[in-house]
Write a structure and sequence with these properties.
Order of helices and strands: HHH
Shape: elongated
Number of strands: 0
Largest sheet: none
Helix content: over 70%
Strand content: under 5%
Radius of gyration: 20 Å
């Protein structure tokens, strides 16, 4: 019984890590592709997870954009005074 609980815990941690990696790299597109092959409640749940992956992906892209602003060459700003 304890091995089963331990295995479920390890599986859930692995699935969470895979979800984070996929959502950071690809967004919810890859997850939606898997969800389109299923039906019913599973399809709704996977599309919900895909929306969350899209929001994580967009948040990370927005933060990268904000962090890279000081390093980008801004044509409006004249630095040759």
């Amino acid at each position: 019984m304890f091995k089963f609980i331990r295995n479920l815990g390890c599986l859930s941690i692995i699935l969470f890590i895979v979800f984070l990696i996929v959502s950071l790299l690809f967004g919810g597109g890859k997850i939606r592709e898997i969800g389109d092959k299923t039906t019913g409640v599973v399809k709704k749940a996977i599309h919900y997870v895909a929306e969350k992956a899209d929001s994580i992906h967009n948040y990370v892209l927005k933060k990268f954009e904000e962090m890279s602003k000081p390093f980008k060459k801004d044509e409006k700003r004249d630095t040759n005074h």
